Amino acid sequence: MSQPVVYGDPISTFVRSVRLTLEEKGVPHVLEPVGLIKGEHKEAAHLARNPWGKMPAFEHAGETFYESSAIMHFIDEAFDGPPLMPSTPGERARVNQVMGIVESYGYPASITNIFIPRVLVPSLGGQTDEAQVAAAKPQAELFLKEIDRLLGSASFFGGDSVSLADLHVLPVLTYLSATPEGEALLAARPNLTAWMQRMNARASVQAVMPAA
Ligand SMILES: N[C@@H](CCC(=O)N[C@@H](CS)C(=O)NCC(=O)O)C(=O)O
Question: Is 159 inside any structural domain?
Fold first, then answer.
């Protein structure tokens, strides 16, 4: 059977989460590049895959999906390899809760309103909107406080082994920690910092996010 295809840019957090999921399951895949900076996700070819003009999109054996959490659950259920969801309803709800937090609160605060204006915009010759960054800091702080609480003293968000929640959080925290704001917020969270180090040592992370 042909390999699953991920459409997107390797720098995108949600593309990274989907690719990390495939790597953790041991599933070889094809990355079909869609340039984020070039705006290729707003062109007709990609809009046909995802009408919202977002990445990733995903294709396997004639089925196509978008929305990273749906894709990640599909991969976990459709392929052999270690399960990436815990076994009890409570633990599963916790993993889904963390994934929802990433999508609804963590990503907008950390990426849209801190990483992009602080790092990406200047790298492209623009100027940081300081008011945008300052306004996002309390939300980023709450994001870290809450996921720190949910992680607690566990090794991973789903318990003893890596879960989809870990794979959704990591790419966002990696970019946030590359900003002075994120670095300061993370310095106050030793459990989360240790979790990041554990994650960064994984072969999947080194394959998908080699600079992490
Ligand atoms: N809820 C979507 C969000 C996808 C998303 O926002 N992707 C970003 C890249 S990390 C994107 O496509 N941004 C381009 C844009 O908003 O124009 C998912 O989980 O797949």
Answer: yes
Tens-digit pLDDT profile for residues 47-56:
999 999 999 9
Specify the number of domains making up the chain: 2
**In this structure, are 98 and 66 located in the same domain?**
no
Nearest-atom index, ligand 1, CA of 111: 10
> Residue 208: its pLDDT value, please?
97
Pocket residues: Cβ below 6 A from ligand 1 = 12-14, 41, 53-55, 67-69, 103
Same domain, 107 and 198: yes
Tell me the whole-structure pTM to 2 decimals.
Answer: 0.97
Range of 36's domain?
5-78
Final residue belonging to a domain, choices 19, 43, 78: 78
Q: Whose CA is nearest to atom 9 of ligand 1?
A: 12
Reduced to 3 states, what is the DSSP secondary structure of residue 156?
strand
Query: Coil, helix or strand for 170?
Result: helix
Strand partners, 59: 5, 64
Q: What is the mean pLDDT of the chain?
A: 97
Where is pLDDT greater, at 143 or 212? 143
* C-alpha torsion angle, residues 191, 194, 196, 201 (rounded to 10): -160
What are the E-state strand segments in 99-147? Answer: none
Average pLDDT over residues 115-130: 97
Please say which residue of 29, 50, 78 terminates a domain: 78
